[in-house]
Amino acid sequence: xxxxxxxxxxxxxxxxxxxxxxxxxxxxxxxxxxxxxxxxxxxxxxxxxxxxxxxxxxxxxxxxxxxxxxxxxxxxxxxxxxxxxxxxxxxxxxxxxxxxxxxxxxxxxxxxxxxxxxxxxxxxxxxxxxxxxxxxxxxxxxxxxxxxxxxxx
Length: 153
Prior knowledge:
23% of the residues lie in helices and 25% in strands. It is an alpha+beta fold. The longest helix has 10 residues, at 40-49. It is globular, with a radius of gyration of 15 Å.
């Protein structure tokens, strides 16, 4: 699925895979899939074939993400499982990942590899905040909540 739909996994699932199991005292609550607009219909068809239903579509993402490479986010559910499909504005599904609020999340998983932009920090449970989040815009509640979520991870 990752190959055929040119999709990568990022967010807390990618971080969870990177960190040693002994140090993981938390569990991801959802799956974040990043994809370009050219492959979205194929991915959605595949997920709906596996009984996932679209429960939300977010298109106006300027707030809290000005200048974001995110085109839209589609949320799907099946029983208690949640998948967020993040659609890139660019031809590359990974461009929004490099705009995350902190270095702890600049990781992704492909069908054949795991990428970590800041392994020296991430594997020691350290992270730097993206300066644009603090200085380039007003720090809003959703961004602050996201930063605090990963404070203990």
